[in-house]
Amino acid sequence: MKLKIGLSAIVAVGLMGGILQAADNIKLSPEEMKKASQIYFDRCAGCHGMLRKGALGPWIRPEPHKDKKGAMHGTKAIGTEALESIIYNGTPGGMPGWGKSGELTKEEVKLMAKFIQLPPVTPPEKSIADMKKSWKVIVPVDKRPKKPETKRNWKNYFGVVLRDVGKIAVIDGDKKEVVSVVPSGFATHILRMSKSGRYMYAIGRDGKAEVIDLWMKEPKVVAEIRTCNDARSIDTSKYKGYEDEYAVVGCYWPPSIVTLKGDTLEPIQLVSTASYTYDTGEFTREARVASIVANHHKPEWVINVKETGQVWLYNYADPRNPGIKMLMAERYLHDGGWDLSKRYFLVAANARNKVVAVDTEKGKVEAIIPTGGTKPHPGRGANVNHPKYGPIWCTGHIGSNDIVCIGTDPKKHKKYAWKVVADIKLPGEGGGNLFVKTHPKCKYIFADRPVNPDRKLQTQIYVIDKNKLKVVKTIKIPDKYLKSKDPKVKVRGPVHFEFNQKGDEVWTSIWGNKLTPTAILVYDANSLKLKKAIEDPRIITPTGKFNVYNTMNDIY
Amino acid sequence: MKLKIGLSAIVAVGLMGGILQAADNIKLSPEEMKKASQIYFDRCAGCHGMLRKGALGPWIRPEPHKDKKGAMHGTKAIGTEALESIIYNGTPGGMPGWGKSGELTKEEVKLMAKFIQLPPVTPPEKSIADMKKSWKVIVPVDKRPKKPETKRNWKNYFGVVLRDVGKIAVIDGDKKEVVSVVPSGFATHILRMSKSGRYMYAIGRDGKAEVIDLWMKEPKVVAEIRTCNDARSIDTSKYKGYEDEYAVVGCYWPPSIVTLKGDTLEPIQLVSTASYTYDTGEFTREARVASIVANHHKPEWVINVKETGQVWLYNYADPRNPGIKMLMAERYLHDGGWDLSKRYFLVAANARNKVVAVDTEKGKVEAIIPTGGTKPHPGRGANVNHPKYGPIWCTGHIGSNDIVCIGTDPKKHKKYAWKVVADIKLPGEGGGNLFVKTHPKCKYIFADRPVNPDRKLQTQIYVIDKNKLKVVKTIKIPDKYLKSKDPKVKVRGPVHFEFNQKGDEVWTSIWGNKLTPTAILVYDANSLKLKKAIEDPRIITPTGKFNVYNTMNDIY
Question: Which of A11, A16, A272 is the closest to B15 by Cβ?
Answer without folding.
Answer: A11
